[in-house]
Every structure is written in structure tokens, then in C-alpha cells.
Design brief:
Low-confidence stretches of chain B: none
Strand order of the largest sheet of chain B: 1-2
Distance between the termini of chain A: 92 Å
Order of helices and strands of chain A: HEHEHEHEEHEHEHEHEHEHHHEEEE
Number of domains of chain A: 2
CATH class of the largest domain in chain A: Alpha Beta
Oligomer: heterodimer
Number of strands of chain B: 2
Distance between the termini of chain B: 28 Å
Strand content of chain B: under 5%
Largest sheet of chain B: 2 strands, antiparallel
CATH superfamily of the largest domain in chain A: Response regulator
Low-confidence stretches of chain A: 23-27
Shape of chain A: elongated
Mean pLDDT of chain B: 91
Largest sheet of chain A: 5 strands, parallel
Radius of gyration of chain A: 24 Å
Structural class of chain B: mainly alpha
Strand order of the largest sheet of chain A: 2-1-3-4-5
Number of strands of chain A: 14
Helix content of chain B: over 70%
Strand content of chain A: 15-25%
Largest interface: A-B, 35 and 31 residues
Mean pLDDT of chain A: 91
Order of helices and strands of chain B: HHHHHHEEHHHHHHHH
CATH architecture of the largest domain in chain A: 3-Layer(aba) Sandwich
Chain lengths: ~375, ~300
């Protein structure tokens, strides 16, 4: 009997001790939970991988510096595999189980569109890392949704402006049948007339195609003065190679999806002279010292490349901007979803990797066409066009 | 079945209910696929296409033609059945690898068509704002109402299928599985039965597709690719082909496993893959084979 009693006493003491420990913890400031959903694996991992690495890097930095107003940042990262059903499950988990304050990502436009109704209904702020404009428009129905990448329309406008300067009026477009390529094709056709540019050929190819010679031969038969290719990897490296094989010398423009030096390397010699719009991250080193983005860009580039030993890409930059924006909003609003959303909407003059963000109730994208710079490939490196 | 009714009372979290909703949608397809594969012995690597036809028909008719969900749902079933019938006549004459290849080809054709007809399907970007299902004034929007709707349908489909298996048709199907030649000799109209079960499984997939479209409210071709067809076949095989309950078991495992493995971060794919591999090596009859074995052992003692 006495043996049993001492056992109970022991248990009692232990539970008291535990209780004290727990209450002790409660006095420390609670962590801020933020969800992140990226296509870390699967066919869009070229987007999700740098995004995840960037987000983890920022989390470490901010927590090493004492967190947000003394609250540590708890970043819960989920993989979408670029698949809509998996994204829906991941977002439900973040909202209902983890009770996150805000969500950054997903990487792709399709997966973002699939979760917009969910975050709107659950009233959770979302900062997407995908480009399609439908993500934030019509803004009246996108109360809780923001995005960081530059707009497709701005990319198209910058390309067409560059063409006007070079007196190019007749062009051929060739686009991949992915969500990204399809959006680009729509915008290219929409703005052509307005900017007095005639599209003389409109070709497409599948995302798995490894040769675009047939489409390019068709284009060669027209009087196009330049080609615009709008796609994601690997077609961005195949089109210039095929053009060279066919002896085509007209200039090649590509989309802002070309924003990774690896793709230029994959195109090799044929990649020389490709012109494309991109954020300034890729040319951070050659920017003038007094450029407002100079410090942010060089610091991010340096930190990322030292930590992961691989070249920085604009896609990681989208996650950088998304998470930093959420952190800024958290600093002002504290742990309240509605207040975080209001703060996000009022952020002005935020210097990010994609440009200088100015959000408003009418604009949840925050960037203008000035966020783009026209770049070109010169001796295997990205540089500004003259 | 009681468990199904009790489950939402215990598990209130919409996240878990959401997973159960997808599990129900997949179950609808895998039950049909198990009838086709396990009972009639015909493999299909193109069932994502029927799922897609159901989803797109419902989606397009409700958003662009402003039909209400129920007639759109029925139209989707009729359309899928017609397509399955037309596809079934030539392809089900094939056997083994050739049948697999033909259905795979069909799946790819539908996938490419969805991508290419931009004006109609929204192309690779897909389209959204598909209205939710409404029964009178009640809108099926909460996870709980979705759960009830989808699992009610699963139970109906399951009962119908079990009935079918234990009927004359079921016996005829199993005879086709054992030996088509012998079945033919015994006077079973094999090609008729094969086409019937093919059409039936396509209808199940179409029902699942319509539900998916109204629940997620956004569809794009990416959800209906070859990978999804393979996932469906894997569900049936892992669960145990020779039984409808096996297909259900496989669906439960393959829907829950990835969610359960979220905690393992980067190692999830590794564990997922090796789990499937181990099941296939040590349980060639699938999970249901194991259940059966355990039951006989238990019965003996």
C-alpha cells in the first residue's frame, strides 16, 4: 500500500512540475504562425525550390534577430507538387489545423486560382508568388488576395516598347501550352494592335516538346522581323538552338520566365542576344549605386548564394517579397488576420526584389511596368540592354 | 457504414473533412475501376479522361450555359457514357498491353484536347467560378455538407456495384476474367458485358468529376493527366484488385498517406514510395489480401 502511495505522490509532483513549466512557457511571447505553400517537387519544382529555400533563409534571419516584435516566426512549409487537389488540402490544413495568420504562395497560377475561393471564405490573407493577373482581379472579389510577381501585361508592354524603339512592326509569336504560355499568348495578342504591332504567325507547342523546328520553319516563311517565345523551361533554351540550326538571325524575345542564368547556359552560344524583361535582381551587380533597389538586391543575392551555393533566380525573389511583406504587416498589425490584410493593402514604397510595391484597395499587385528592366544575354551573362 | 455517419461528429476539423471529401470522390472512380479491372479483367489507363469529361461538362454547362448543376450533372453522365461506349467498342477488342496502350492514348487525346481548345475549356489556364451545388436554398459549401453528399453517393454506388457482382452479370464478368474463351464457349456474350462494365465505370468517374468541379470551383487540365490515371490504377492494385472493398481500402490508404507524411517534410516521397513497394512485394494480393489472410487465421484459432 505504501508503495502505491509513494508512486501517486511521485506522479503528483511530476504533474505539478509540468504544470509550472507549461505556465512558465505561456509567459513567453507566442510564435507567429505563417503558412507557405510551394511546388517544391513535381514539374514546377524550378519555381518552388528556390522559393522554399528563400523563405527558410528569411525565417532563420528574422528569428536570429529576435523575431517580429519579440514573437518568433513559425513558418510552416507545405509542398503542393504543383497539383490543385494537393494545394487545396495543404491550404485547408494550414488554415484549419495550424491556424496560420497568413499564407504565402503557391508558386503556380493554376494552383493559386484553385485556392482563392478558400482563402476568401476563410478570410485569411494570401500573398501569391504566381504571376497571372486573374489572381488579383477583379479586386472587389479578391479582398484577401495579393501577389508579388510583376504583371504579364507589363512584360508584354515592355517588350513591345522595345520593339517600337528598334522599329520592329511585324512579329511572330510562339508559345507553350502551359498556363503561363497561354496567358502570355492572350496578352501578346491583346496589346499588339494598340501598340501598332502585327502578329504574322501564331504558333504553339506542348510543354514536353523537345523540338520546335516545324513551328520555326513556318515562321521562317513569313516576313516576321522578330520572334517572341513565351514559355517556361526547357523550351526557352530549345527555341534559340533550333533558330540557330535553321539559320534564323532575327532577334528573339522571351518572357520574364527566362529569369535564371541556368537557362541561358543551357542555350549556350545560341542564347547570345536574347532580349527579355525581368526584375532587377539578375543585374543587381551592374545597377548604379544610387538605385533604390540596389541594397536589397545585392544583400539577398549575396546571402542566398553563400548559403545555398547556387545562382539566385527571380522566382526565389517572389517568395522573398511575399514573406517580407507579411512580416511588415505583422509588425504593424500583430496576430490578427483582418488587421494583417488591412496593413498589406496599405503598404506603400516597400522596396522588394521585384520592384517598389505600392498597394491600395484598387491594386493588390503593387507593381508598375517600371519594375521591369529589359535584359539581354552577353557572353553568357545577363546585362542591361542599351 | 455506421463509422461513416459517426465520423464527422468526432472529427469536426474542416481540414480532415476536406480530405474525406476527396477520398469519397476518388472512391467513386476506384470502385468503377475495380469492377473493370478486378472483375472483368480489363485494364484502363485512361480513367482520368472520364473524370475530366464529367468535370468539364458540368463546369462548362453551369458557367457558360448557366444551366443549374443537376441537369448539367446528368448531361455529363450521358455524354461520358456515349464516349465510353464509342471508345469501348474498338478498344475492348484488344487485350493486355494493347488495351492498356489504347486507353492510355485515349487519356492523352482528351488531355491534349482540353489544352488546345482554349476558347471552350480555357486551355491550360483552366477556368474558375464554377457555381456550387444547391439543393433548393441550401448551398453545398461547408465541408460537412460536401462530405455527406459525396459519401451518400459512394454508398449508393457501392451498394449498386455489390449487387451487380452478386448477380448474373457479376458471374459473367468473373468468368471473362478467368478465361474469355471459356466464357464465350459457355454462351456469355463477352464483348457486350465488357462494354457495359466499361461504360458503368466511366459513369462513376463522370459523377466524381462533376462533384470535383462544383467543390473546387476551378478546373484545369493539369488535374486530369496521365499521372492521375496511374494513381487511380495504383489505388485499385494496392487495395487488392479482386474486390470492391479492396479498391476502397487502397483509396483510403493513398489519400491519407500523403497527408500523414506531411510531417516528414522532404522525406515524404521516399516513405510514400517505399510503402507502396513493400505492399506490392509482401502483399501481392493487395491490402485486402492481407485482411482476408488475417481473417482465416483468426477463424482457425
Amino acid at each position: 500500500m505504501s508503495k502505491l502511495n509513494s508512486k501517486w505522490m511521485g506522479l503528483f509532483c511530476l504533474s505539478m512540475l509540468l504544470l509550472m513549466l507549461i505556465s512558465g512557457c505561456a509567459k513567453e511571447k507566442k510564435t507567429y504562425k505563417v503558412g507557405a505553400i510551394f511546388a517544391i517537387t513535381g514539374s514546377a519544382s524550378w519555381l518552388g525550390e528556390p522559393e522554399k529555400k528563400t523563405a527558410e533563409m528569411i525565417k532563420e534571419e528574422i528569428n536570429a534577430a529576435g523575431g517580429i516584435n519579440g514573437h518568433l516566426l513559425d513558418l510552416i512549409i507545405e509542398d503542393t507538387v504543383g497539383d490543385e487537389t494537393k494545394t487545396v488540402n495543404a491550404v485547408n490544413k494550414l488554415i484549419e489545423k495550424d491556424k496560420v495568420l497568413a499564407i504565402i504562395g503557391p508558386s503556380r497560377s493554376g494552383t493559386t486560382m484553385a485556392i482563392v475561393p478558400i482563402v476568401e471564405k476563410a478570410e485569411v490573407p494570401l500573398v501569391s508568388c504566381a504571376a497571372a493577373e486573374a489572381i488579383v482581379s477583379p479586386v472587389a472579389e479578391r479582398h484577401w488576395v495579393f501577389k508579388t510577381p510583376q504583371k504579364d501585361t507589363d512584360a508584354v508592354i515592355r517588350i513591345y516598347e522595345h520593339m517600337q524603339d528598334k522599329e520592329i512592326a511585324k512579329i511572330a509569336i510562339i508559345t507553350g501550352t502551359t498556363g503561363f504560355g497561354d496567358q502570355g499568348r492572350k496578352q501578346l495578342k491583346k496589346y499588339a494592335e494598340k501598340m501598332e504591332i502585327t502578329i504574322v504567325a501564331d504558333e504553339t507547342y506542348g510543354p514536353g516538346d523537345t523540338d520546335m523546328t516545324p513551328q520555326l520553319i513556318k515562321i521562317k516563311g513569313t516576313n516576321a522581323q522578330a520572334i517572341v517565345n513565351w514559355s517556361i523551361v526547357p523550351a526557352q533554351s530549345i527555341v534559340p538552338k533550333n533558330m540557330r540550326q535553321l539559320g534564323m538571325t532575327i532577334p528573339l524575345y522571351q518572357s520574364h520566365g527566362f529569369g535564371n542564368i541556368k537557362y541561358a547556359a543551357a542555350a549556350g552560344e545560341a542564347g547570345e542576344g536574347i532580349i527579355f524583361p525581368a526584375g532587377r535582381l539578375l543585374v543587381a551587380d551592374v545597377l548604379p549605386e544610387d538605385h533604390p533597389q540596389k541594397t536589397v538586391l545585392t544583400e539577398y543575392k549575396k546571402a542566398y548564394e553563400e548559403k545555398y551555393r547556387e545562382p539566385v533566380s527571380t522566382f526565389g525573389g517572389h517568395a522573398y517579397d511575399a514573406l517580407k511583406l507579411v512580416i511588415v504587416a505583422l509588425q504593424q498589425a500583430g496576430p490578427d488576420r483582418a488587421k494583417i490584410r488591412d496593413e498589406l493593402e496599405n503598404i506603400k514604397g516597400f522596396v522588394g526584389t521585384g520592384g517598389i510595391f505600392n498597394f491600395s484597395p484598387e491594386d493588390h499587385s503593387g507593381l508598375t511596368k517600371e519594375a521591369f528592366e529589359m535584359l539581354t544575354v552577353k557572353e553568357g551573362n545577363f546585362t542591361l540592354t542599351e | 457504414m455506421l463509422g461513416l455517419v459517426a465520423l464527422p461528429m468526432v472529427m469536426r476539423n474542416p481540414y480532415y473533412l476536406g480530405i474525406m471529401v476527396f477520398m469519397g470522390i476518388y472512391s467513386l472512380i476506384s470502385i468503377g475501376l475495380s469492377l473493370l479491372m478486378g472483375y472483368a479483367g480489363q485494364i484502363s489507363l485512361g480513367h482520368a479522361a472520364f473524370f475530366a469529361i464529367g468535370a468539364y461538362t458540368s463546369g462548362i454547362l453551369t458557367t457558360k450555359a448557366h444551366l443549374s448543376p443537376l441537369p448539367a450533372f446528368l448531361a455529363a453522365i450521358v455524354l461520358t457514357a456515349c464516349i465510353a461506349f464509342l471508345i469501348g467498342i474498338p478498344t475492348l477488342r484488344l487485350k493486355g498491353h494493347y488495351l492498356a496502350m489504347a486507353t492510355l492514348g485515349f487519356g492523352q487525346i482528351v488531355y491534349v484536347a482540353l489544352n488546345a481548345s482554349v476558347d471552350f475549356t480555357g486551355g491550360p489556364s483552366g477556368f474558375g467560378e464554377i457555381p456550387r451545388i444547391a439543393l433548393g436554398n441550401f448551398v453545398v459549401e461547408s465541408q460537412l455538407s460536401r462530405y455527406c453528399l459525396v459519401w451518400a453517393l459512394v454508398i449508393i454506388v457501392l451498394l449498386f456495384s455489390l449487387n451487380l457482382i452478386h448477380s448474373r452479370v457479376g458471374r459473367a464478368l468473373r468468368s471473362i476474367h478467368s478465361s474469355e474463351l471459356a466464357a464465350n464457349a459457355m454462351g456469355v456474350n463477352t464483348s457486350k458485358y465488357k462494354i457495359q462494365v466499361f461504360v458503368l465505370s466511366a459513369i462513376y468517374a463522370s459523377i466524381a468529376g462533376s462533384l470535383y468541379a462544383h467543390f473546387v470551383t476551378f478546373i484545369s487540365p493539369g488535374s486530369f493527366d496521365l499521372e492521375f490515371s496511374i494513381l487511380l490504377v495504383t489505388m485499385v492494385v494496392v487495395g487488392g484488385m479482386a474486390n470492391v472493398w479492396g479498391a476502397l481500402l487502397g483509396t483510403v490508404l493513398l489519400t491519407l498517406l500523403p497527408e500523414f507524411l506531411r510531417g516528414f517534410k522532404d522525406y515524404d516521397i521516399l516513405i510514400y514510395g517505399s510503402t507502396l513497394l513493400l505492399i506490392m512485394i509482401f502483399m501481392p494480393e493487395g491490402l485486402f489480401g492481407l485482411v482476408k489472410k488475417l481473417r482465416t487465421v483468426h477463424g482457425k484459432t
